[in-house]
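Hi there,

I know you've been waiting on this one. I reran it after we fixed the sequence typo, so this is the corrected version. Both the input and the resulting structure follow.
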Amino acid sequence: MAERYVHALWCDDIRQEIGNKPSFMGAYVGGLTVTSLPTILPRLSVYVWATTTIDHPFEKAELRITRDDGFVLTQFTAGIIDQDKIQHPKPEETTSFTLMFGINLSGIELPENCKYFSISVETESETLEGQKLWVSVDPGLFAHPK
């Protein structure tokens, strides 16, 4: 297993439930299919886990979501948690620390040749890449039989 990695779950919506539990609506498995390009997605969400080992904490974590043409949909720098100030008990066997982000976007443009969206987290020493959301076109996706 890699010392540091990013995992992303792409979906239509993320909702915060009672008990501080996220619910993922319309999760994409491998890709997103639209009837034509260009188009606009009314909404797009991604839940991101950026994981590192306890003995190699993040000093910097800048999250970026981009299209394949380099257009940045959103980016922000996460506040890094001081491991010594965590209030809850930390079991001795804990070996990793994870930053988690839920991001909801709206009005996302997909240009004519859009192939994917990507997620990355730039740390103090590397750029970690998460799963891409691949875009495919199927004009008959919502076609009704005669």
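Quick highlight: The chain has a mean pLDDT of 89.

Best,
R. S.
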